[in-house]
Structures
1.
Amino acid sequence: MSIGPENILILTGAGISAESGLGTFREKGGLWEKFDPMKLATPEAFADDPARVLEFYNARRANLADAKANAAHFALAELEQAWMMAGRGEFTLVTQNIDDLHEQAGSANLLHMHGELLKTRCQACGHLYTDAGPITHGAPCSACGKPHGLRPHVVWFGEMPLGLDQIYRAMDRVDLFIAIGTSGTVYPAAGFVQEAKKLGAWTVELSLEPGEVSEIFDEGIYGPATEFVPEWVAKKLA
Ligand code: APR
């Protein structure tokens, strides 16, 4: 008897990009250990000292320039491809990451709920464009010409994450929810597992170590993403 469709929703966090050399936030030596997020990743911080905030994100853009997608990113792109080709069900990839490594690996149905580091947005007119270079403090927007309005298109603490309606629509039909490389500390992302479980999905935490909401997951797989994500995908596609 043929099995029905299996709709997959995957949530990734900084841990999936750790082995590509990009830092995580809350681990030893993590970004928020070196920098105070309240001074760099809030709208108030940007209003108060835009030059300092831009310097921080320009440095992260430069850091991203030579980062490469790793085996875990590629495995998820392969799973998406195979799932869609075989018509096995829906596949939605939601990332909290602002890097472009999922894109580099070929992921298509991808949603950056915390924005994208390589995009610049004008606060005055909303003009949004890809820009891997540094944002110069005070530079005029190429669309409206207003200066001092350019910021990285990333979601700061206290701002609404992007695409939530799309995410919850996909969540409504999810059969399998996997959280990869995220500590489960920042909401609403950390609440997705609860939501998925309520809707009857099977839930898997795949990370280096159990996160803050690990006891909610049905299944836990702990170890480096570049080892365990490809292995998990291979089993899923077998
Ligand atoms: N393989 C798999 N998981 C890993 C690896 C690895 N090689 N290295 C670290 N991890 C796991 C850690 O165990 C941890 O659970 O990745 C997680 C990283 O957690 P955080 O640093 O808190 O990152 P994340 O969960 O993505 O943070 C969420 O917080 O600061 C905000 O907007 C920022 O999107 C970020 C959000």
Note: Residues 77 and 106 are 6 Å apart (CA to CA).
2.
Amino acid sequence: MNMLLETKGLTAFYGDFQALFGIDFTIGAGETVAMIGANGAGKSTFLRALTGLHRTSGQDIFFDGQAIGGMAADRIHKMGLAMVPEGRRLFASLTVEENLRIGASGRRFGGWTVEQIYDLFPELLAKRKNLGTALSGGQQQMVAIGRALMSNPRLLLCDEISLGLAPKVIKNIYKSVPLIRETGTALLLVEQDVSQALAVADRVYCFMEGRVSLTGTPATLTRDQIAKAYFGIGDAA
Ligand code: ATP
């Protein structure tokens, strides 16, 4: 598998506070990777560093072999790195379809159309003229994913797409993951819903207190290993 994105010893700070300590991470083209960890472990900071929203040194993030650390966020986006942000952040005054079309601005060459987004999430079709605010939380999340896909990303970063949603709704949203994978897009799924993330991922990274505490494939990691790496305790019960 070709390497798509790599970080080497990535660090991040908020003023004097260090949030990330030397993160080594890789994701291959078309791969699905889950990133799990408790509140405050550094997952969102990591995603923000990858997308250029949190500035880093310059020689610690490589996308398709090119150093992107310190690059402006819009340039990184144009190279094919898109994020579904935590909290969805739809444009409240725009309809579903307008929100989707906004995702296409400055996009890479590629196949995603609004019709394909409706194929991916059929319940959005009837809501296409509705304002984002008139949707359920799950539907808003679908629009947020669709909007990011409209840029034809090579790597889609999803920050806690199951946050605040009912299990049935989460399951429904996760149905889209294999379909997105089929298009060749790599996925980095940051999740607190561990079981959901592990069910779809090729590999997993666990973060604890700004460090990678565990990495491996879902099939080879035990519940005890994951609990220890997630909470810093040994009991998975
Ligand atoms: P969550 O699931 O709560 O979003 P997370 O794993 O994504 O957690 P981050 O949001 O990346 O964690 O936070 C990592 C650390 O950085 C935490 O200690 C947090 O308090 C701190 N932090 C995050 N954002 C800021 C900020 N804007 N200013 C100062 N410290 C911050």
Note: The mean pLDDT is 89.
